[in-house]
Amino acid sequence: MAQTSQNKKDLAQARTKTSFDITDMTNYLYGGAANVEQRRYIIDLIAREPIFNKDDWCWLNHTDAVKRGIAMSTRLAEIKMEHELNDLDFATMVEAIDDTLPILLHNGAFIPVINSQGSDEQIEKWIPLAEKYQIIGCYAQTELGHGSNLSQLETTATFIQETDEWEINSTTFTAAKWWIGGLGAICTHAVVQAKLIIAGKDYGAHVFVVPIRSLDDHKPFPGIQVGDIGPKAYGGFNKMENGFARFNQYRIPRENMLMRFSKVSRDGVYTKPPHSKLSYGSMVLLRSVLIRQMALYLSRATTISTRYLTVRRQFNNPTSRNDIDINPALETQVINYPMVQNRLFPMIAQSYALFAAGSVMMEMYIGLMTGLSSGNIDTLAEVHAMSSALKSYCTTIAAAGAEECRKLMGGHGYSYFTGLAHMFASIVPSNTYEGDNYVLTQQMARYLLKEVKTARTTPDKVTPYSKYLLLALNRDSFAHSRCSVTKAEDWLNPDVQLEVFEHRCARLAFELSDAVDAAGGMEKTIWSDHNMECFRISHAHAQYVMVLWFIQSVRDARNPEMDEERRASPEAITILERLSNLHALHTIQTNLADFTEDAYFSPSQCQSLRAQVKALVASIADQAVGLVDAFDHPDFLLASALGASDGDAYQRLWDKAQTEPLNCREVCDGYEEYIRPLLKKHGELKL
Q: Would you say 181 is a known binding-site residue?
């Protein structure tokens, strides 16, 4: 009978220390048992399909990977139709596949953009075809020469009144559409952002449905040059054929301009939209989805790292959590070292906070779209700014967190077989696409400057998440306000935590407003001079709402009047409160300069804050494995030799290494051509 490895014993022993019901915690994270069961069902659908097996991914070159990606895309579409799955189920399938496929922008951007910006007639024409995959689309905005600066896109759509057509043209070499997911090989159509030109007048960027390839033989239509831009950094997005396209006076019907809001009549009369930002809905969707996606990514990274660090033993250094009572000869578990805990456990807390933020942000998006459908734009500015700020912040911490999890795992962490290398390569580009994380922070900053103006003139109209601005209306009183913490336990009061974040946000917002006013106001200031201040206030606001929403989520879990899906057991709530406190206080500690430069914190408060963070970290140690188990990521999804649920890390890593193609031969390929001639260059050697 095979002997159970020490690795397995260590992970099993760690699970016995969990003080809460893991199933209950999982239900809290995913909004109820029904959602958990549906997620498991969908992931199992994918895991049973041979085409989605991940064992050989690291050996594929880009060309082979794209072909595999196309095959996976086809099967993904078939499964969606066979099982009549909804958009949420489709997103779960994508999560389970754990790679970016050529077809993803079809469901993630092409269909949503037509649904949100197309007229009823256009939706009726295009969406049924798209939903049955009779056409496959993508979203083409970025160009070789321009990405974030939408106003300077160089692709044009010129109205030809004689034939009632648009002439799509790449006016310069740099006007080529670039980085477009799905465009390189699979797509038959694209929704293209192009400058609308009528009688020589530029009406700005608008969206057009543009046929790219023939539905008969898939060849590009005359007037279109299309292809793949090549492999990406870190080997990421290897199955996605990010493409380019150049248009040479390519004609499409006038009706292919999406006309829910802007319109152009047969005689070339342009009707502007009732609000210039109505098209922002699709951007808000993509950014809102990213927040939830970062929760899933960071929770997977912390799951892998936590499990491995629990079974990894190094040195016999004493810690407060040594297990010498089990076996005095054993080395210390790496997870018991305080330095490791202080790096790892705050990221577990961040993961839980990201789950809460993802849920609220999606609720805000749904509320926005419900309002827009009836012409109500009241929440548009706030939701757009919020999604921008959170996209920037959440993708930043997820990418940094995944890399920190890898570094925590030491030398073995550099192996592809951890599952973290592929994950990191998937997260990193999110810092750039859907808005560069630094440029994007200007959206929230501009929004808050308008809110500052509102606070000064009509304070009762300040939006809920900007109410903290009212604190600073009396500038002299605000300048002399100080943190209310008098003893270490005060830091555990959620209301005190929120006061601290609100003070910081109010100060940074008014400082930015003062700087802009001193430079001549919004219209005259050199905006780039304030970029760093914009970044600071945007991330400060994002951190504030992250802390707020996590606190609210825990309060809802405790509230007996709340829907059952949002509630949790008393044992789970106790741990959730610790996580919420750790998330809030660690965020403050990480950004301590922001809270001290105006003397809001005293030196003694800083010291008690650090002590409280240290105590919270220690209080979570026994719960760490249970907390990551509650994320409910199956081994198929983790694809990690070191983070598998059974803890048998060394055996799994050994087994994975044996699959390396180099190991299929006793003498390596290249010996006769290169190694032998070098060894024999100076004659035979006898030793």
A: yes
